[in-house]
Hints:
Layout: E1 3-4, H1 7-29, E2 34-40, H2 44-59, E3 63-69, H3 75-87, E4 93-96, H4 106-112, H5 124-131, H6 140-151, E5 160-164, H7 171-180, E6 184-188, H8 195-200, E7 204-207, E8 225-228, E9 232-234, E10 237-239, H9 244-247, E11 253-254, H10 261-281
Parallel strand pairs: 1-11, 2-3, 2-4, 5-6, 5-7, 7-8, 8-11
Antiparallel strand pairs: 9-10
Helix pairs in contact: 1-10, 2-10, 6-7, 6-10
Amino acid sequence: MGEIISGKKLSKEIREQVRLEVEALKVTYNAVPHLAVVLVGSDPASESYVKAKERACIKAGMKSTIILKDESLEEAELLSIIDKLNKDEGVHGVLVQLPLPKHIDENKVIDAIDFKKDVDGFHPLNIAYMHMGREAIYPATPSGIITMLKSTGIELKGKDAIIIGRSNIVGKPAAMLLMKEHCTVQIAHSRTLNLKEKCLQADIIVAAVGRANTVTEDMVKEGAVIIDVGVNRVDGKLVGDVDFDAIKEKASFITPVPGGVGPMTITSLLQNTVKTFKGLVE
């Protein structure tokens, strides 16, 4: 049976390192990283995620501010809130929880955040710098994926990787970060032909399509590493995009759902907030 990469366990270790770093920053700068999160509307998943971020910040010794706004909030007002947070020297990270109500243009909102405070790593400048191999703030989930892969101790250089999913939040940035680690990367998606054959050639499979059982046991070669980003509810149970029970016997390493990539996303966000803090104060 393959080894399970526990995002829960890894997160705990990294969050403790972050807490110690925050303590040291407090001594040096007499200030701690401050993350401001704006939540528009009352989407239950977003609310729960924002609360989890707040708890993680407080545990790490950071300051956390949540700005809750009604779904009827006008786009101009949201842009004005972002502008104030950008100008506030006491705020080091700004995050607007997505998705937003339909009458608000998400791209305008992402563009409005100061790229130096963009802890989500979604600002076009951060994305461009990442593509150019320059210093940037990387999106949290792809960063967490790389951290998990490195935690296994396997050599990433030269490995064949396939990412199933081409979103701007996970698929595309994960491809860039894997290339940065010298992997050879293919991006597949819902219209990819011969997906099974392509997966069978891969040393690393990152499944990020949001559809249960996208990756089945016959699509995985012996000893492959499986990173499951999917979160799906099937018969009242949370499952990923891969058939975990069948594949865990074949894979050398595999992430569970829940308790895999999820906890690492918030952990990467904490690391990004420390990074933006240092970028602004140093």
